[in-house]
Amino acid sequence: MAEEKKAPEKQSAFSKFMSMNGASVFVAMLAVMVLFEIVIQIQKGGAGGLVFITPHNIMLIFRSMLYTGIIAFGMTLVMITGNIDLSVGSQLTFLCSVCAIFMISTDNPFIGIVGTLAVGAICGLANGLLVSYLKLNSFITTLGTSSIFTALALMASAGTVLVIPNNCAKAFTAFGTAKIGPVSILIIWFVVVAVILGLLLSKTVFGQQLYVVGSNPVAARFSGIKYKLITTVSYIITGVCCGLAAVVTMANVKSANPQSGSGAEMDVILCVVLGGCAVQGGKGSVWGTVIGVLFYGVLDNGFTMLNLSTYMRWVVMGLIMVFVLSMDALKSRGVKLWKKK
């Protein structure tokens, strides 16, 4: 008698959800939010209603991470190729100064916005050419260009805070403070960049080639993929994202501090890694990065409410990054972290 074929087991809705990229991070984020609420309630003696899980606080978390999130979306593309960009924080500082100089010299918001985005693309192009065409290590290269961008920011601003002139401040401010109905334009920029880059990754040939370059660069080269161009374009997109973040920042604060973006690269990298992007390349998604950005915002906001010192916050964030990277490294080596039933 012929062996009866077993019908494939149907996955539950929860199993399907957990198989999605970023789902486990999303569940972990919800668990952490509940944990923060419990700890804060205990600290305050349980008086009053909810403190942490409120619409106002969640919106505050979202708004505080918008600038980091826009840059993190570009960084996702770079890390999918198996590279990294440690210069994004310095780029943000430099591009804020560039935006202020354009505003001061031209009194034209349009020129300031377009000029900043163009300079951001040039910064990304420089990183991309060094990494892909000269075949330099991305970690060391972008660490070096980070120092260059920091120096350029100090030179451009002469070490002082650059303030946008009042005659163009009103028109320019709308770029970062306007509202469309009840929705802030900051949230709209965040969503627009996420949707565009998400579709670029999932629905275009370029996006698929990014994954191939990151997962197997040798196979990508022999299959005819222009891996050098692909890598360079990913850096250019990151530079444009830094430019947009700089413009939105300037539209809100109206001044450029030559030290403002210091250390932002670590926040960006942690958001991308929390979102499930593999440091070795070939894995990641914009959706996952969105969850990573929100998760980081939840942690930062929770630590603030708990009055955790800056130094302890760095320790905890560092431990989280080391843990996530360790899990990723073990999985890439084929180590089973748990046994399946």
Alpha-carbon Rg, integer: 22 Å
Strand order within the widest beta sheet: 1-4
User: Based on CA inertia axes, which overall geometry fits?
Assistant: globular
Largest sheet: 2 strands, antiparallel
Euclidean distance between termini CA atoms? 30 Å
Give the secondary structure arrangement, pairings included.
Layout: H1 13-19, H2 23-43, H3 55-64, H4 66-80, H5 88-106, H6 109-133, H7 138-157, E1 162-163, H8 166-177, E2 179-180, E3 183-184, H9 185-203, H10 205-215, H11 217-222, H12 227-253, E4 255-256, H13 264-274, H14 286-305, H15 310-332
Antiparallel strand pairs: 1-4, 2-3
Brief summary:
The chain is mainly α. The chain has helices at about 15-20, 25-45, 55-65, 65-80, 90-105, 110-135, 140-155, 165-175, 185-205, 205-215, 215-220, 225-255, 265-275, 285-305, 310-330, and strands at about 160-165, 180, 185, 255. The chain has a domain at about 65-260.
Model description:
The protein is built from 15 helices and 4 strands. It is mostly helical. The chain has a domain of 196 residues. Helix 4 runs parallel beside helix 9, helix 8 packs across helix 12 and helix 13 packs across helix 14. It is globular. It starts with 12 loop residues before the first helix and ends in a 9-residue tail after the last helix.
